[in-house]
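S., here's the first fold you wanted:
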Amino acid sequence: MKTGKKSRAAVPALNGEELHERITKKAYERYLDRGQLDGYDLEDWLEAERLVLAELGTEAGEMD
C-alpha cells in the first residue's frame, strides 16, 4: 500500500564521484548551450546541481 511518502531508501544509489560526474556533464552542456561563453561557471554548476538532484528525485519517485 502506497502512503504517498517517498522513502529515502528509494533514492538511486550514487556515490560522490558519480554525482560529481553527472553534475560536471550537465554544467558542461549548459556551457555549450550558452555558446561557450566564459564567466558563468558558478551559475552553470549551481543550475546543473539543481537539475541533477531534481532528476534523481524524479527517478526515486518513479521507483515507488
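And the second, which I think is the more interesting of the pair:
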Amino acid sequence: MEGRRYGNSRPSFGGPREMCDATCSDCGAQTKVPFKPIEGRPVYCRDCYQKHKNDRPTNRPSFRREGGDNESDDSQEE
C-alpha cells in the first residue's frame, strides 16, 4: 500500500505549525511555543513544562465511558 505512513509519522494538515515567541513563566528563558500565548496564563520552556505538567488541573471533562468492561450493571435484573 503506497502513500500510507506508519510509525510516528503524522500527516501534515495545513503545513508546518506556526511557532510563537514566549518567555518562560518560571525561569524567564526565551522559548518558542506552538500556540499564541494568552495573557494571564503561564507559558513554560520545555524543561519547566516537564516539571509542571503534573500540576495541571484535573477538572477537565472526561470523554471516557462511565464504568468498565469488568463492572456489572446493577440496574439490569435477570
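Why I say that: The radius of gyration is 21 Å. The longest strand covers residues 20-23.

Talk tomorrow,
H.
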